């Protein structure tokens, strides 16, 4: 007989197995065929359901009687999410470190006892140490050495001591290996020795995980739940609560109602600012269960002494303890608070501190690292394993007390939305295992969706997902029988009902209550009773700024932006904030930790409203809550609007009772987003020592914010993001923070100035904009990834693109549009853009810049003219030098490459300024005016600035990017001439292009580390220069032959000719065959000169006498030696990364798999066949196996030399072989 709750409770009575088969065929096969034949998208995450064959139409039909119908992503919505998170994949995530066998472990004997065994073979000769949490400080304070002989005894004693102190684990390490030994749990017995009757409750809470993201990111867990639901061999079922609503966007908004049934807004505007949340209320739920005879377990993966606190300390923000005395005081305080929580076992809670500290030098994992691992396993597995160990022990002993367990995972609390995938494989196995415990109810929930990703605050779907959590139940047969038909039927029914954590709390509080457990009132038993089908968010107690999951309700309650009917509400909210700012400034109390100045937003800078948008109204009882985004004018020095998300509550019947319930400042500047922890880590990476690093830490950590409302000064709250602006260090720290940004950009030139970053990429006009667009898009994606990783925000609205073609190429570009995106938002393409104060246009005419400049100069000169009556000539000159000339000369080295007409427009304004200062008429001669003022035309002053800049570059006093554009005659040809070190080489350019107007014109080829590289990689320029050098040196050798014996001629060749010929030969010998023959002819000439033979002598004979081989064969030897080094780990990693052996690719053991290399695919029509990677691998694979298996480089080189010499034994000419 099968349990009644299987298959979604579609059958109330089961007669025979035949009936089941028919029912399944009727209900499951048809949708399957429709889906195969109709819907082409096969990803089950589209339907967000545990039913394998359920589609979106069927889901909507099942909700036809429900008033609250949740939003569902369409295909476009899924594609948009894929752009941010990547397409769903079933690849199992793994840790980067290795798994080592356990040094110590507990084994279960036949009698059921746990026996400790230890084996340190894996440690080799490394010292083995043991570390336990110090019961007086809450951290590992020392490590104890273990010997092989006494290891079991010493670890066993430590286990007993740690158990008495309330800890369930200890750490063991040796060398680079770090492991944790988890102890068997200490369980409580039922009083009187009776068998337990109640079920156990196990709650898994995943932080920041929405329902859509669960289905797209955790495919194994989804399949595990589907298997539990549909596999008749598993005596359990899985329930999926599809309209589970978040109360708010904060963790405590949801967990507080779960534990204590209280809904409290932590963002409410009050007279004080708290450094901690309102109490979570764990004791309310746990005390109730303890009265029912339960033992309690509470675990979370945060560190108790982290600056952000943990949920058990109400997320209280405090500085980290650093000394032992601080740890002792904080630990005693922590234990005092925990003694009131009614928690019997903290499980692996304190396991996170040593792990994060020892492995990652962190005290939380909110954003980094991307993987938290221990001994090759994700650390979330250790928490799940402990729950299984406890439940297994309870299951095996019917006289132990039942368990109520809660665990809070913060893996999803980060900015990429991808780290949650690390938990998938272990979570799937965990749920399958929990289904095997017949009397344990397992709940898998989340508090809210991720609100830290680009998707969550850039898209409407992402914002909606923040309030769309998950709620699943794994219910075995024993739990079904214990709950009974009424409560079980209600749970099934409520899978399609709207509810929150408050309803879950009511259900748990009534689980074993003798009176409440039989009630059918949802206000008493929550989800254990049928919830109303017409329930909407108006019937729920939600945070003011929460968004409702109900599609129709929120659509109907949305209001257009800047609605005239709600202006008074926006003015009221703005006025309430301004009133607090005004009172704060006018009272001006001086806090002991503040500088003696008035407080307030910009020191009494009142908020000036601009617009209000994203308006949503929601009715609750006799009141209406209106949520909106207030855009206010930014303070001086800022461009982007300040945005305050506010909620205003009003009585539904009158406007006399209105109050501001909460507000959140949404917008932030680049300087405000710098994370202190990341900044300090970068400073340390750049070589800042610990002493100075501590100064920076104090400089940043001592910044605090205060609020003074209605005459009450709040307690201080530490600022964890941002650097102070206006000081000396602000800009320096910001530049240090973004210093590594150019390293992630591979295709473009990056120019960074403060918070303005410019990418420059180019391509040949024949390729159109596609090539440039592809390069830029790849780099923009890299920038977005960098921003997310460093917790910065890319402002896509302020990001612009411009295609610079010049006049000549404009007509040759077929499609001048650039289709670029940043985080799913299209980047606007403009025809001109202001960059660091200079307006650049598509044709580089700078006409737009000159237009704006002339307007500015005209206004300032007009003002000067009005003031001339009151100013003597000296002060007029001071006005010009202070307010006019700096504007005119700013960026002039760049924009004066404009047309002659535009230069004359600016020059006319300079002449006008001279007449105004001197008080002369329009017919006065400019030359005379300029002589009186000791002026020169501004364009000549620009020439002076250019010369000064070049002088600085020649003397190493300018940035390297300017120095790299200049080449002196002396550095080019190497000859000592009178002015060679002062004359510069001017690159070639065409008069028809814009190149002649540039500061430095680009050349067609460039010398790089002694090898001249040209645009087409022909190396012709290099061979030309090489042949000239070799010809001169061989000519000199010929002149010296009369005075030198043959041995010294060879010495001359080996010292002065061969090194020049062979330098960089691995690179430049990919030239044409004709160029190779030019160099080879010079080598043959050198052989004749050394031997004194005539031009008709045979080269093969000459080379045999000298024991030479052609230089290009010697290049082959060098390539083979380089590959040999790479295969044996003796070459740079960038060379090793280009080589792949057969053995490492397929993993099969073959005779020569570790010596044969994989040759990449290439086209004969491209240069790829001439690359080092292709030609060298083909050469290596063609060598005999005996050569490739040599054990030393010297023997390989000698054998290769003999190999090539022997290959020429029967030939008459080297050219035939080449």
Walkthrough of the structure:
Among the domains are: 104-180; 566-582 and 605-666, Nuclear Transport Factor 2, Chain: A, CATH 3.10.450; 676-841, no CATH class; 847-1007, no CATH class; 1013-1207, no CATH class. By secondary structure, the protein is of the alpha+beta class. Mean pLDDT is 80; it is low at 1-45, 269-275 and 589-603. Strands 8-14-13-7-12-9 form a six-stranded mixed β-sheet, with helices on both faces. It has a five-stranded antiparallel β-sheet with strand order 15-16-17-18-19. It contains 44 helices and 33 strands. Keywords: Nucleotidyltransferase, RNA-directed DNA polymerase, Transferase. GO terms for molecular function: RNA-directed DNA polymerase activity. This is Putative RNA-directed DNA polymerase from transposon BS.
Which labels suit this protein?
single chain; 1218 residues; alpha+beta; Nuclear Transport Factor 2, Chain: A; five-stranded antiparallel β-sheet; globular; Alkaline_phosphatase_core_sf; Putative RNA-directed DNA polymerase from transposon BS; nucleotidyltransferase
Residue share in helices? 40-55%
Q: Please give the largest β-sheet.
A: 6 strands, mixed
Give the CA-based shape.
Answer: globular
The beta-strand count equals: 33
Spatial order of strands in the largest sheet? 8-14-13-7-12-9
Rg, alpha carbons? 38 Å
Task: Give a quick rundown of the structure.
By secondary structure, the protein is an alpha+beta fold.
How are the elements arranged and paired?
Blueprint: H1 17-37, H2 56-62, H3 75-85, E1 104-108, E2 114-118, E3 128-133, E4 140-146, H4 151-164, E5 169-174, E6 177-182, E7 200-206, H5 211-217, H6 219-230, E8 236-240, H7 251-260, H8 282-291, E9 295-300, H9 324-338, H10 352-360, E10 373-374, E11 377-378, H11 380-396, E12 403-409, H12 424-434, E13 440-446, H13 454-458, H14 460-465, E14 471-476, H15 477-493, H16 501-509, H17 522-525, H18 551-557, E15 558-559, H19 567-587, E16 609-620, E17 623-632, E18 642-651, E19 658-665, H20 676-685, H21 690-701, E20 704-705, E21 708-709, E22 712-713, E23 717-718, H22 728-737, E24 749-753, E25 756-760, H23 768-789, E26 800-801, H24 806-810, E27 821-822, E28 825-826, E29 828-829, E30 832-835, E31 838-841, H25 847-867, H26 873-889, H27 892-895, H28 900-918, H29 926-933, H30 938-954, H31 960-963, H32 969-973, E32 1005-1008, E33 1011-1014, H33 1020-1040, H34 1046-1062, H35 1065-1068, H36 1073-1091, H37 1099-1106, H38 1111-1127, H39 1133-1136, H40 1142-1146, H41 1172-1182, H42 1185-1188, H43 1193-1207, H44 1214-1217
Parallel strand pairs: 7-12, 7-13, 9-12, 26-29
Antiparallel strand pairs: 1-2, 3-4, 3-5, 5-6, 8-14, 10-11, 13-14, 15-16, 16-17, 17-18, 18-19, 20-23, 21-22, 24-25, 27-28, 30-31, 32-33
Helix pairs in contact: 6-12, 7-8, 7-16, 11-12, 20-21, 25-26, 25-28, 26-28, 28-29, 33-34, 33-36, 34-36, 36-37, 38-41, 38-43
